[in-house]
Amino acid sequence: MKDVFARLASDFLSAIVFLVVYLITDNVVLATSVAIAGAIAQVIYARVKGQQLNYMTYASLALVIVLGTVTLLTNDPRFMLAKPSIAHFAIGAIMLKRGWMLRYMPPIVAETVPEYVTAAGYAWAVLMFVIGAGMIAVASTGDLKLWAFYITVVAGGAKILAFAVQYVVLRLIVTSRRRAAARA
Question: Residue ranges of the domains in the chain?
């Protein structure tokens, strides 16, 4: 679980850096420049350390550079704020693959209720698309405080709630099926 949070922090580091610098300085150019430099430094550091970089790392770097450049040219932070929504759309698209979640489930769940796990995978894809659309809507306002609230409380809370609901539902269904099989 610690690795998951480290990966998420790494993926959203440029957005976090941008937000912090912008809130402290109220300077779009400085915040964007620091975010772009930070994203480039992050990739260079990983390469120097010999870490394997995947497609998403390079896609994220490209997004930071492209959206950061547009932000610099327009002096408008909304482009940088929209970056996490693109990541949510990409993840949502990946989650549309049938059965993607089965490999992340304990064997008892994957073997007992694979159809429910597949449905949960599609539900997660929908959640990612909804969060991404909401993030674009919030980013278009240009309100940094609202965006920070949305990305942390709303988006983060929705994922935690979805995980908790999924856990409880799958546990109840697996328990019910196992009891029924034991009685039969």
Answer: 1-74, 76-183
